[in-house]
Fold each of these.
Amino acid sequence: MNQSRLKRVCANMEAQGLSQILVTSTASVYYLTGVWVEPMERLLALYLDLEGRCILYGNALFGLEEQEGLELAIHSDSDDPCARLAEELRPGVLGVDKSWPSRFLISLLDSRRDVRPVLGSAPVDQARMYKDPEEIALMQAASRINDQVMEAAVSALREGVREDEMAALVETLYREQGADRSGEGQLVCFGPNGADPHHGPGRTPLKAGDSVVLDIFTPIRRYWCDMTRTVFFQEADPEQRRVYEVVKEANLAAEAAIRPGVPLREVDRAARQVIEEAGYGPRFTHRLGHGCGLDCHEPPDNSASSEGICQPGMVFSVEPGIYLPGRMGVRIEDLVLVTEDGCQVLNAAPKDLRIV
């Protein structure tokens, strides 16, 4: 068990009036125990209480090993996976991870009618928002690799190459750099497809005058990198150039606003105001960004409605965009680390307008 992280989680539990919680997210279990298990349809659950009990429930197939400060409760495929867990719980409120499958929760509650479940992800989520030095170093290293992959991908653009071929190339480049395997895929969007912020790469070929949105991301040693750059193939018309410069200005304005104590909604506002004043406000259709770490999308929310406050150790994305249906899209995204006196942009890939 990582005792310093466990102490932070327990302090959060106490502040939120939770005496017991179930941690079931693979990433959150790893954050506390160093054990990474993809349980698929099987049960994985870490029980924590304020008295310091830490019990990891899992299938024998997971190959879990003893470690100091952590009890193991192992079951087999022929067992009721919730039976031992039901025996351990105390009556009353139980904090439950937001993504725990209902089949386990319902089974547990059928056995323990004296337990009242509430959302219990916040104690771990809030601890994970503030990266420790080890995590920061891993995220910095991942973003350095992402810079290299982005440059190689941009250099590989050629007339007629398809979006799905470029997406496959990015995956290959990541593997060559030692990245973990990810099922997320990459976002590669040519021309009008860039107007869809989450366009899945298809068989569209690249042609002169296309905007090229490359939103690339993967875990590297468990921690995610995430970056978007937009370039233009062979030529860019005046409107494309104008849209690009507006998005770049919005990206830089938001990053300049980041420092401890600043509400995240004000960071979003700094970017959105630039785009609104340029006349493209309705074409910026999503939040400014999201937290990043062991999950690609995790707290804090970087949006106009966020209640979060910038604090040292937070890592989140800054990714303004303008999307013109039937025409093009432009998005520029960095990961940033909030420091004691501002922020460190983790990506060094160029942001000046590029025609390739």
Amino acid sequence: MWFLIFLISFGILLVFIELLILPGFGAAGIPGCLLILIGFSAALWKFGWQTALTSTGITLVLVIPLAIIGLSVLRKTPVIQTFILSATENKEAGFQAPPSELVSLVGKSGKTLTPLRPAGAALINGNRVDIVTQGEFVEPETDIEVILVEGNRVVVRSLQ
């Protein structure tokens, strides 16, 4: 019986390692799920439903909090930190969020100042804005509408 509880506990630990430490899915998650399933199935086959459910339930109640606490502490160690992405995108490194005035342009209309091939410039709300189309050519002085803003990229469509 103790071996089956160990199998289920180790399976739960592997699933939590997959969730909290390792990127992606499969390296520890699939073997963990298999160990849980094997441990429960073996307990069910050898001891019956009541004992299998009781032992699995007690194992879950005891191991999950211990796994969460243990892996949270383990994440702080230097060895595990090599597996965890800790890079940030901050202003000092040159990263910028899209200006809030660009995000507010979605749905607004304006006129092109230059030909859009597919990039160019337009006058929207009295401001000159660098814009792109979704690939089509647009003549100057054409009415356009902003349909999407992705970062600093303002995507428009022709209204004509």
